[in-house]
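Appendix B, record 7
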Amino acid sequence: MPTYQSPGVYIREISGMKSIQAAGTSVVAFVGFTKTRPVDNQPGEPRLVTSWTQYVAEFGDFVDGFYLPMSVYGYFQNGGGLCYVLSLMTADERNSRSGSRQSAPPRRLTLPGSAESVAGSLEVQPRVDGAVNVIVEHTPESEDQFKVTIRSTEGEESFDGLTLGKGRGLRNAVDVVNAQSKLVRLKELESPATLTERRPKPGSYQIDAAMVPVAQPIAISQKELEGDPNSAPRTGLAGLAAVEEITIVCMPDLMSSSPDDIAMYQKALVAHCEQMKDRVAILDAPRGLSPQQVKEWMKTKLNVSSSYAALYYPWVKVRNPLANGKGEKTILVPPSGLLAGVYARVDRERGVHKAPANEELLGVLDVERKITTSDQDTLNPDGINCIRNFPGRGIRVWGARTLAGGESEWRYVNVRRLFCMLEESIYEGTQWAVFEPNDMLLWARLRRDIGAFLKRMWLQGALFGNTPEEAYYVKCDAENNPPETRENGELYIEVGVAPVKPAEFIIISFKQISGVAQ
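Structure tokens (predicted):
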């Protein structure tokens, strides 16, 4: 207390309530491979990026076979604000590891013309993965007409009365097939031969699945991923542990590994989030699996039960930024980066208490596999969140579950993330109390500060209840702070909150009435 020597009026400023600020909820860390790396950025060291322009300036743009650049782009496209990029490998480092890479055989087939002197008449390029079988039959009505049947695992198509001629009333093979086929595209090869000579020879021609140029798996060791907590600077997941503001972690690039390796990497990522307790992992299911296969993989390979992880299926189709008028115009990418952008968008527009579901994925053209309601009936109870294409409504996230299990109180993503935010906010907002006198005055100040913060959360719709008393409580008194705990320098605060759960199932009951007022 100050001492006063002369009579008069004295003004004192008294510190009031210690306001607790809500912690950030949508700072994402991307783990994977980049085209380049800043000179002052060590391999596996997290780097803050605030825009796509900055990412390109520091890490380069898109790279064939690398998913992280597409994921970061999709993150900003879907509403992301800032993120950390942890580059485990660059394109040059990949090439040095794999040695000289031989290009895969071209994924196309040249159909031979009818005459021996004609090298080929049409070039066929598949639009789908897997083997494609092309069957050519001659049409007896005309010497230059033919029939083409295409068969693949995606279905069968048949085109009759085709010709290489052009003109009114003619079914030009290139025009007809390219306009109607979802399985292949045709290109006419130049030749001075006649139409009859150029007509494809009858037969069955297969473009083998082995000829498809598939990105070679890029393997890293589990030690490289986890990093060394004793190194300077820290790298890998150990480097992410030092960045406290991170709340979401994605690992899109390691999806090019085998299903066993994917599960190994994802288990390490979930363990990191479990240890930190302030972030969640957005996991991708492996590419190309059926609903039953992804369910079996999740149970037998991944085999984790955690509220700090959410799994999404299937992959999504986006525009291929490397097409440049050649090759496939679209590519499949793991959805985790785009979903991180959805998380950020929902946090900003509605709040972390809103489930990041029934939200449209921006920049997505289609899904790898169309999911039906019956498919999701088998996946949703196991915590596999589906991405579905709804006609007229776009491609939407249609699930909000964690991998904690259907009976767990932590089964919803928004509940887990809400508690992460509340715990981090109160933790940061009560640091001032350390070493303060452990008495009733301190207890009252803590109850007041934490209660004021939780009331703001309730007013924003994050907590359930008609009144603050129904939504939360803060207990810090002599009952939970008896003399023996105070003697040990301990102070206990009990906080209870009622989170808002998402309306996952909306049941509307219809009843037929007679028309008479009841």
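Remarks on this record: Residues 217 and 257 are 5 Å apart (CA to CA). Residues 430-518 form one domain.
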